[in-house]
Design brief:
With about 110 residues, this protein is mainly alpha-helical. It folds into two domains: about 35 residues, no CATH class; about 50 residues, no CATH class. It is about 35% helix and about 10% strand. The chain contains four helices and two strands; from the N terminus they run αααββα. A two-stranded antiparallel ribbon has the order 1-2. β1 and β2 form a beta hairpin. It is extended, with a radius of gyration of 20 Å. The chain starts with a helix and ends in a 13-residue tail after the last helix.
Length: about 110
Amino acid sequence: MLANNKQLEMIAKKSNIELDSIKYILKNNLDIPEKLQKQLLVQGAAVVIDSKHGNILAMIGGRSDYLDQYNRSTQALRQPGSVFKPYIYTAAIDNNFLPNNKILFFK
């Protein structure tokens, strides 16, 4: 559910649906009306790779019922960011670091 009430107010105003109705739909996990789906449903992507052989095991680029047919896993140009975190954390654990260890950086 959207935490930002102002966003919900804007969506309600744009779609001519009462704010309380939108909140009720989200709170009770009901089917979202088609004219609200673009604003309320989350899109994401995932690529699952076999780390030993490099094969792609699974890939999804978003919801198949979405109007734009934009494949976020192959078409989105994003910085890698969080992709590297598992490697960093694994290296830290392999070197006996604990989750609560503090690392000081000096220049």
